[in-house]
Amino acid sequence: MLYAFSSPEVKVPLSLHNVFSKGVTIRSTYGASPMDLMQALDLLHHGKVIVNDLITHKLTLEDVGSGFRLASDGSKSLKVIIEPNK
Question: pTM score, two decimals?
Fold first, then answer.
């Protein structure tokens, strides 16, 4: 899994041999455009969204499995936070 936000000029070397011989699956996601991020930050800055109200669970790293189960069931959680240093 790759998670990164970069400029269009950034290139990632990819071995097609490894993709085919090891059965690698490449998946991508769309999270937000730069404009979406700027709008979100503006909403936060002006107090239009209270982020702490969205967090339903805070778990330790030892409970990460439980966190994934909670996050996958939208009826039991909204935002699950894993706090690795707790």
Answer: 0.50
Q: Which two tokens stand for residue 72?
A: 């996958």
Supply the pLDDT for residue 81: 92
pLDDT, average across residues 14-39: 82
Residue type for 86, please?
A: K
Give residue 2's pLDDT. Answer: 53
Task: Please state the domain extents for the chain.
Answer: 33-83
- Give the C-alpha separation, 23 to 20, whole Å: 5
Rounded to whole angstroms, the Cα distance separating 10 from 4 reads 11
| CA neighbor of 60 nearest in space, from 27, 85, 25, 29 | 85
